[in-house]
Amino acid sequence: MHGGVDGISKKIRSTFDRGISTSDLDKRQMIYGENHYTEKPARSFWAFVWDALQDLILIILMVCAVFSAVVSLLLEGWPKGMYDGLGIILSILLVVMVTAISDYRQSLQFKAPDNEKKKIFIHVTRNGSRQKISIYE
After folding, report:
1. Taking a C-beta distance cutoff of 8 angstroms, is the pair 68, 88 a contact?
2. What is the mean predicted confidence (pLDDT) over 88-99?
3. What does residue 15 show for φ and ψ, rounded to 5 degrees?
4. What are phi and psi of 108, to 5 degrees?
5. pTM of the model
């Protein structure tokens, strides 16, 4: 349909022995766009905290902690009644923070090797000579 490899080469104004002219690079980039993809933004620490709070067991414990605090306040009064409920709530917050910190650090550790994978160089022909360039160029 396009005349084979030679036909496509003519349509994109390239040859096998000369490659692409460096003077055309800006024009080609404007026509075809950059060789980049949009990355998802990194998740914030608070997103990991929110995820940790979504655990069903922790939600049940939070409801029990509030119920315990209310019942203890009614039965024992202000200072003594808050100890059990407040202890459970602090334990839940500790578990949530440890989980969120662990998950956040793990996500940062996966990001470093991912950045290394992006440093890929290839050989191309530009103005008749072989060059080693980044895949994004």
Report:
1. yes
2. 93
3. -130, 160
4. -70, -35
5. 0.62
